[in-house]
Amino acid sequence: MTSGEGEVVWHADFGPAMPKQNWIPAPRFLLRRDRIRRHLRDVAPCRVIDIGCGPASILSELAVRGFDAVGVDRSIDALGLARNLISAERPVTLEPKLRPEWKESFDLLLSFEVIEHLEDDVGAMRDWAAYLRPGGRLLLSTPAHPDRWNAADEWAGHVRRYERDGLIRAVTDAGFTVETVECYGFPLANVMEVLRARAYGKVLERKRRTAASAEALTSESGSDRSVESRYWSILSSKPVVLLMKAMCQLQRPFLRTDLGNGYLALARKD
């Protein structure tokens, strides 16, 4: 079921986890990962960059497949976690910011749970497009539905959530042609969001007492899964693995609806 490499646990079904360092693939991540893997399963190895890569879990799995993988994240903590996943079998280049010499050198650009943190989301995506070759693809995710704003959004340093039309408009205004948008996560992620909001409401209150800034919260959000990590032994157990597989299957009939709590968009550089 699992194999260990120091601080890293490689789960046969969930991929890498670092429970001792408070990062695990939480249920919503696993629902999103299932869709990402399906979109990328027929993509031949190419040069890929993940902007806001966090612990680089997805990148490390792509590196195993032979992708030339580059991860960028401004969070020192996230890059520290990501370095635990790098090996000869999983080579990933990690940097704190984009490098000018990388422009028009990537075939695929990934960015998961990032644009909701950015005041100028369109401007950022327009800048990202410069790093893709003509015809290159963008695959990104973001939380759905502003009316579901909760304490977990505030803890994570979000500035917005998206409706489908607003997301399509933002990606299009950035110079991409949207090919597909899925709303993933229903029904499990909807239930987990309520529970997560309650848990992170308590965490947020502690952060407020220490006067943590929004930028600090944003930096922590990609690398801190302290709430979920408490339950890793349960999440990685065989019954829950079977349940998660069922939930990944169950979300598929609802991807074209807006019932889930996250969007996954695939677009092409014009």
Number of strands: 10
Count of individual helical segments: 11
Termini, distance in Å?
A: 43 Å
Within the CATH hierarchy, at the fold level, what is the topology? Rossmann fold
Low-confidence stretches: none
What's the gyration radius in Å? 17 Å
Query: Approximately what portion of the residues adopt beta-strand conformation?
Result: 15-25%
Average pLDDT for all residues: 91
Oligomer: single chain
For the biggest sheet, the summary is:
7 strands, mixed
Strand order of the largest sheet: 6-5-4-7-8-10-9
Q: Considering DSSP H and I runs of 4 or more, what fraction of the residues is helical?
A: 25-40%
Q: Can you name the CATH architecture?
A: 3-Layer(aba) Sandwich
- SS content category: alpha/beta
Shape: globular
Order of helices and strands: EEEHEHEHEEHEHHEHHHHHE
Number of structural domains: 1
CATH H-level homologous superfamily name: Vaccinia Virus protein VP39
CATH class category: Alpha Beta
